[in-house]
Write a structure and sequence with these properties.
This protein is α/β, with parallel strands linked by helices. It contains eight helices and ten strands. The protein is globular.
Length: 264
């Protein structure tokens, strides 16, 4: 499980550019929880994921995964617990390396490297089978350079790499925002399938309110560095975009605008 306890983060403190990014964020997730996160630009969504990932240290609070306090750990030391897919399809993979080599790197994430062969025959067979599940024909292109793939193919591969070792927490940071609508739908469907099959605890940031409602078992809205809405269960199943906008207005005291969340 994941426990975020009173997380606080301020950028450029005591200057004219001071920005309170996280203002006492607390959250508890159980194994298998799939949480979608929405909110306007600067609401704190990506800052929260970066704090969990260790991109920067929080000013105050605790981050606990499966009973282990990882708050003080560096980014690379948190790798065994976490998987992450970014908005930019160019991130998360090595463009000049082969598809199979990228998968081998992901398989060894958080482990010590030795002088053994980079990819064994058994691994090749495993990776072909995994790639086949994507339905993109990549299992027949395992020696191609990742840089030759389309954005959608690359994002699907990154998703596979992020979940190869079944992380304790999968973080999807607007991972379909840079894709065309049809490709984005394909990647979202794949994401949902992988999450369900592996019962992965997941946090997915999105600006699309329909996707936030459609996917996951829980929806969180952030505003000004705080969680202002936490909707789950039957309430989430019956949620509509209009009802969500009304809830935002009630919780935040302001009307939702186009830059708060993008409607598809």
């Amino acid at each position: 499980m994941l426990d975020l306890i009173n997380l606080r983060k301020t950028f450029n403190p005591n200057t004219i550019n001071e920005k309170v990014a996280l203002n006492g964020v607390s959250l508890h997730l159980e194994d298998g929880d799939f949480v979608t996160m929405i909110g306007g630009n600067g609401a704190g969504k990506s800052t929260l994921l970066n704090a969990i990932a260790g991109v920067w240290q929080v000013d105050d609070g605790k981050i606990v995964i499966d009973g282990t306090d990882i708050t003080g750990l560096s980014e690379h030391k948190r790798a065994p617990w976490l998987g992450r897919v970014f908005q930019d399809p160019m991130m998360g993979t090595a463009a000049t390396m082969q598809i199979i080599e990228n998968l081998a790197l992901a398989k060894r994430r958080g482990q010590k490297r030795g002088l053994k062969p980079g990819v064994t025959k058994a691994e090749k067979d495993e990776y072909r089978d995994l790639l086949a599940t994507l339905g993109l024909g990549l299992e027949n292109r395992i020696t191609e350079k990742v840089g030759l793939l389309s954005g959608g193919q690359r994002q699907a591969l990154t998703l596979l790499m992020a979940t190869l070792n079944k992380p304790k927490l999968l973080m999807l940071d607007e991972h379909t925002a840079a894709l065309d609508p049809r490709t984005a739908e394909k990647v979202l469907t794949l994401s949902d399938q992988i999450i369900k099959e592996n019962n992965l605890m997941t946090m997915m940031v999105t600006h699309n309110m329909k996707d936030a409602i459609r996917y996951g078992n829980r929806l969180i809205m952030m505003n000004d560095g705080k969680i202002i809405l936490d909707i789950r269960g039957e309430e989430k199943k019956n949620l509509t975009v209009k009802a969500l906008m009304d809830e935002f207005a009630r919780a935040s005291g302001e009307e939702i605008t186009s830059d708060k969340a993008l409607l598809s």
